[in-house]
Amino acid sequence: MSLTDDLWSDIESIYAEILQHPFVRGLTDGTLPRPAFRHFVEQDSLYLRDYARALALCGARAPQAAALQAFVEDAVGALAAEQEMLAGFGAELGEELGQLVLPTTRAYTSHLLAVAHGGSYAEAVGAVLPCYWIYARVGAHLLEKSSPDRLYARWIAAYGDEAFQSVVRRVLELTDALGAEVSPAERARMRERFVTSSRYEWMFWDAAWQGERWPV
Ligand SMILES: Cc1ncc(CO)c(N)n1
Keyword Hydrolase: yes or no (predicted)? Predict the structure, then answer.
């Protein structure tokens, strides 16, 4: 099995839970309450800044120029997405978005940055991959249904669209090339990082749905 086949088989059940989540279902049927979407947009704009840092680190550590270029381009893409969250969606959501990084966002970005700084290059790729791949799969899935809500339809279009899908294909190819080189122990570590990030992806939607706050 290719590395990406192994990775996806590890998160099949997490992915199924993401598609079932009321936040995700609420995007397509339009029932998602605005405050939950607002929570998501606010936290995602904060997330994207650190995600861009993690991608830039992957790029800096990549042994080959093609991977350096891919990750650095995607870091710039994540910063553009941050601006789109703030300007494009934030403006429509009324009041200025908050700046407080909430627990799940902090936990997820801390995980990404810890692995990107302290793990191997391959582990760093394992950690960032769910951010690409789960959004591409969720985006493509939701695109089939779109949404009666104009704002949600726009969010779906951004992640379902072909430009994002091709960015994700490039990183999947690069991951499989890496899979052919790494030791079994390294492959196991990549899988662990990948599963952890995937769990955080589910938690990120759930935090917005629950209106997560710091308890004290
Ligand atoms: C939490 C999260 N994961 C992944 C993406 C897409 O890269 C995003 N915008 N937000």
Answer: yes
